[in-house]
Amino acid sequence: MDGNVVFALLLTLFAGLATGIGSLLSLLTKRTNTKFLSMALGFSAGVMIYVSLVEIFVKAKDSLTEELGTTNGYWMTIFGFFAGMIFIAIVDRLLPKIGNPHEVKSVEDMDNGPSNAEYTKLMKMGVFTALAIGIHNFPEGIATFASALQDPNLGIAIAIAVAIHNIPEGIAVAVPIYYATGNRKKAFKLSFLSGLAEPVGAFVAYLVLMPFLNGVVFGVVFAAVAGIMVFISLDELLPAAKKYDETHSSIYGVVAGMLVMALSLVLMA
C-alpha cells in the first residue's frame, strides 16, 4: 500500500477516534467547559468553511476544467458540490430522531441517576446515537481521506477540524449510556466504536475509488467533499457552538479557524 494512502488512512483514524476524547471528557470531568467547547467547535467550522470554499472547491474546479473544458468543468464542479450537500442531508434525514448525534449534551447531565422508567429510553437513546454517529462519520471519513490523499498538509488541517467536531459527539453517546447504567467502560466503549466508522469510510473509499481515480473522478469527489464539509459546518458545528455558549465565543472561534487555515495555506504553499 502506498505511503500516502497509509498516511491518509491514519489521519482518518485519528479524526474518528476523537469521539473517545469526548467520552473521556464526560466521564472523567465534573463540569463541561462550555466556553472552550463553543470556541473549539466554531474554530472547526471556520477551518472547514474556509478550506472548502477557498482551497478544495478551487482544486476540484481546476481538475475538472482541465479534463472537461472551462464551461463543462465549472458546471460539473457545481454539481459535485451540491451533490455532496444533498448526500449528507439525506444521511441526516434518515437518522432516527432519538439518536440525533447533534443533540447538545454536557457532563452535568450525569449528575442524577435515572428512574426505572427512564432506563430503557436512555439506553435506547445512547445506542441509537452511537449508531447514528457511526453512519454520519462514514462520509466524513471519505472526505478526510480524499483530502489527505490529494494534499497531506490539507489533510492534517481537515483531520484536526473533524476531530474537534467529533468530541461533542462522543459526549452525546457517553452521557445517556452512563446516565442509564452507571457503567463508565460501557459508555466509553460505545463512544469509541462509533468513531471507527470514519476510518472504515476511508478504507471503503480506498477500495472503491482508487481503481477508477482520474482527473474527473477526483474533481467530482473533491467538489462533493467541499459540499459535505460546508453542510456539516452550517448544520451541525455552528448551531452546537451557539448552544454550548451563548456569547460571542463561537464566532471568535470561526474567525480564528479561518485565519489559521488561511495562514497555514500560505505558509505551506
Structure description:
With 269 residues, the protein is an all-alpha fold. It has one domain. Helix content is 83%, strand content 0%. The chain has 10 helices and no strands. The chain has helices at residues 3-16, 18-28, 34-68, 70-94, 116-150, 152-181, 184-195, 197-209, 215-244, 249-267. Helix 2 (18-28) packs parallel to helix 6 (152-181), helix 5 (116-150) packs parallel to helix 7 (184-195) and helix 6 (152-181) packs antiparallel against helix 7. It is globular and about 60 Å long. The chain starts with a helix and ends with a helix. The mean pLDDT is 79.
List keywords for this structure.
mainly alpha; 10 helices; globular
Give a nutshell description of this structure.
This protein has 10 helices and no strands. It is an all-alpha fold and 269 residues long.
For the largest beta-sheet, the strand count, sense and barrel status come to: none
Number of helices: 10
Broad shape: globular
Give the total of domains.
Answer: 1
Strand content: under 5%
Give the end-to-end Cα distance, rounded to a whole number of Å: 27 Å
Number of strands: 0
Order of helices and strands: HHHHHHHHHH
Task: Give the quaternary arrangement of the chains.
Answer: single chain
Radius of gyration: 19 Å
Helix content: over 70%
Q: Please, what is the average pLDDT?
A: 79
Which spans of ≥5 residues are poorly predicted at pLDDT below 50?
Answer: none
- Helix-and-strand structural type: mainly alpha
